Amino acid sequence: MKKKIDLTVAITTHTEGLILHKTMMSIFEALDRVEKSGYGYEIVIHVDNGDNATINYLDRYKSDKRIRIFQNSFGDTGSSRNFAANKARGDMIAFMDGDDLISPNWFLEALKLVKKSKKDIIVHPEAILTFGMDQPNILTIQRNSRLPKEEATILASGNLWCSVSLARRSVFISTPYRRLGIGYGHEDWIFNIDTIQKNIPHRIAGNTVLFYRRSENSRLSSGNNDGVVIPAMDLFDLKQMATVPTPEMDERLKRAEAEQDEDQAKKKWTARRVYKGIRNNKYLNFFITPVAKFTLWTMGRLPKDDSQIGSFKTIVPDWVIKEWVAANHTEPLLYPYKQLLIDATLYEADAQSLIGEAFCRLAKMVKKKPDYVFIVPWVVRGGADKVLFNYIEALKEKHPEWHFAVISTLPVKNTWADKLPDCVDFIDYGNVAAELWSDEARDELMSRLIVQLQCNKLHIINSDFGYLWIKKHKKLIEAEYRLDVSIFAWGYIEGSNFEAVESYANPRLFDIYSAVRYIFTDNQNMKDYLIDVNAFDEKKIKVLYQPIKDMEVVSPHEELVEEGKIKILWAGRVTSVKMPELVAEIGKRLDENKVTIDVYGEIDKTVNKDIFDDIPALKYCGVYNGFESLPIFEYDLLLYTSLSDGMPNVVLEAAAAGIPILASNDGGVGEFVQNEKTGILVEDYKNPKEYIERINEISKNPKKLSKLAKSAQRLLNKRHSWQAFLDIIID
Questions:
Q1: Pick from 179, 211, 243: which residue ends a domain?
Q2: At residue 1, does pLDDT exceed 70?
Q3: Residues 616 and 503 both lie in one domain
Q4: Among the three residues 211, 240, 272, which one is the final residue of a domain in this structure?
């Protein structure tokens, strides 16, 4: 009579080669205890896309009646495990990977727990000791699960239990591992989420150890390096997560908001500074998995009551050390040398909750599932932000039923966020993510947010973080999302004396080009640049001239505001790219009795705050709140200076206000300010002499200003009307 099979040990293998032998020796030793306790077992080995070394090694077991070997080419871990589960004959299944080892007590202790339980449970080893590749060891202590609502915050940001597990066969059949699409991954993590959602408890077999082998082709490592993310899960439903209290994070965000000022460079990122202090650790930069990625945080949280071994301290419990020593006879890489015990890092599962809390905080900002998602650096006063508002209003006019989400990615005070219409949920990701300790943690938070929003229409406008996130997850974006980007101009590399060019196009847009549907820009000059420099497809680039919608078009002055004197307006952000030194030099060369310049705008921290002082013909008037807030009827001419720009809003706004324009021929400016037709264009735009000459010409013939302004308004009405924008916008 055949002995009843109580346990099937299912081993999934790939390209382990001879390393599989150490796994098998470890399994045989543990199964010896199972057999001596009166339980029957079998071993099912499933080879998925195995190499010759692995297949040749397994030849030795072909005649072993305890072992059945199967080969397939699924190329998918979940499918491999599901196949093994369906082939299993045992009442219970224990899953193992082909390169790990276990303590001899693992199978028996786990089997006893399942036998004893009246309800379905899934059992894992208590400890995971990660080793190999000459990197520091990490000790993970796993714990029993709690109620689903209590685990959601932690599971939203990281895996709580390893893939080595033991449960009744019916559990694995009724809750199979998911076969995931391109860009999705971490089958074990997803399986754990699915089972927790079903309220199937995860339990720990006390004093048992999994020895997890770190390797260059590690499945978890490669999955993370490929930028895979967890798909949308019911456990992380935004409405549900929004109900989770986050008092500590709310208080921290309030303090951070109180500390914010206009100089964002002074913002304090305590967690980020801690991360920078250890980011050069070779191990931490390589082995980022759902089990190990939060080590950055836990390194500062070692227990204060470490157990004593001789004259040194270690976080490793005595029972782990005992199993660690015993494993040496199977795997010589395993031995608790003194220095390893001193250097061992403890990973605590609950340390992950900070990402989960951040996700709950973001969930509170989402009132409705969006139909369109914008990713921007901030929502403040500026040209790019007006583009955002124009897009939203136009898309809403075309699709009245649509709802929008705007995700800001920088930790700043978003002064225009309250101007967004009711159809928009503003998600202040930048300030919430600033609470996290590493770029990996911030990436994980963004991944969870984007996936759980369940909207496949994404649009990036000038967000560095958005570009980097897309680059890391490009496979997912190509497979599941429709991505558009808006790009307006190139800039100059700092320190290059305005000679070396940089832009969102190189390398940010270049790196994600295959995932992009359309590239929108507000000027033909930028389109030509993208084609000439990057060889982008012309059909993929769309020029959408931005509208001037809310400003009333004012008839230009027929005469100078003040007879015999030209009063010039300069308005914009006072940054180095706007050439404030040039403006100051122009002011110094003007006769204050004939020409004056009023400068409006916030002075950037990179610019000397006293740059406009003691210039009789020039007056700095401070910050302004939009062009409409300026005393526009006092001015005869707009002076616009820039080294790099697209189609500047201030030029269009000046035209609407009836103010003639004198501008540098940069970027898309010349498409609107056509010399001696719709304005005056300065070709040698770094030379103050040419500006002075053009101003002097105007003073001799001021009547032509009105003619130029009227021509500019005709072009404005034709090309920059709201209807023209609606006619060409692509949804």
A1: 211
A2: no
A3: no
A4: 211
Q: In the prediction, which pLDDT does 256 show?
A: 77
Beta strand spans in 5-121 (E): 7-13, 41-48, 67-72, 92-97, 101-102
Query: Where do we find the tokens 């995971």?
Result: 128
Q: What is the DSSP string of 429-457?
A: HHHHHTTSSSHHHHHHHHHHHHHHHT--E
pLDDT in tens, 688-731: 999 999 999 998 888 899 999 999 999 999 999 999 999 999 99
CA separation for the pair 103, 81 (Å, rounded): 22
Cα→Cα distances 206→39, 143, 385, Å: 20, 10, 56
Contact 162, 186 (CB under 8 A): no
Residue of 249, 352, 246 lying closest to 301 (CA atoms)? 352
Q: How far apart are CA 167 and CA 291, in angstroms?
A: 21
Identify whether 332 is preceded by a cis peptide bond (ω within 30 of 0).
no
Domain that holds residue 646: 566-727
Q: Are residues 435 and 579 in the same domain?
A: no
In the predicted model, is pLDDT for residue 279 greater than 60?
Answer: no
Burial status of residue 380 (CB atoms within 10 A of its CB: 0-12, 13-18, 19 or more): middle
Evaluate whether residue 556 is within a structural domain: no
Residue 273 lies in a domain: no
In a domain, 245, yes or no: no
Q: Which long-range contacts (CB under 8 A, 24 or more apart) does 649-653 make?
A: 649/383, 649/386, 649/546, 649/548, 650/383, 650/571, 650/572, 652/546, 652/548, 652/716, 652/720, 653/548, 653/551, 653/627, 653/628
Count of CA atoms in the C-beta half-sphere (13 A) of 533 = 16
What is the pLDDT confidence band of residue 301, given thresholds at 50, 70 and 90? very low
pLDDT in tens, 579-604: 999 999 999 999 999 999 999 999 99
Separation of alpha carbons 43 and 46, rounded Å = 10
Using pLDDT thresholds of 50, 70 and 90, give the confidence band for residue 496.
low
Place of tokens 């070997």: 69
Q: What span, in angstroms and rounded, lies between the C-alpha atoms of 331 and 129?
A: 13
Q: What pLDDT is recorded for position 493?
A: 67
CATH number of 18's domain: 3.90.550.10
Same domain membership, residue 517 and residue 575: no
Number of domains in the chain: 3
Residue 49 DSSP one-character state: S
Q: How many other C-beta atoms can be found within 10 angstroms of the C-beta atom of residue 219? A: 19
Give the CA-trace dihedral at 139, 141, 147, 149, to 10 degrees: -30
In this predicted structure, the answer to whether residue 107 has a pLDDT above a threshold of 70 is yes
- What whole-number distance in Å separates Cα of residue 104 and Cα of residue 62? 24
Q: Which of the two residues, 501 and 146, has the higher pLDDT score?
A: 146
> Is 489 part of any domain?
yes
Whether residues 478 and 370 share a domain: the answer is yes
Nearest to 704 by CA among 533, 560, 548: 560
Residues 588 and 657 in one domain: yes
Give me the phi and psi of 487, to 5 degrees please.
-140, 135
> What CATH number should be reported for the domain holding residue 649?
3.40.50.2000
Q: How does pLDDT run across 471-486, given as a tens digit for each residue?
A: 999 999 999 999 999 9
User: Do 390 and 549 form a contact (C-beta atoms < 8 A)?
Assistant: yes
Quick one: what percent of the chain has pLDDT higher than 70?
89
The span from the CA of 541 to the CA of 472, in Å, is: 23
In angstroms, the Cα distances linking 202 to 192, 219, 347, 531 are 8, 23, 18, 56
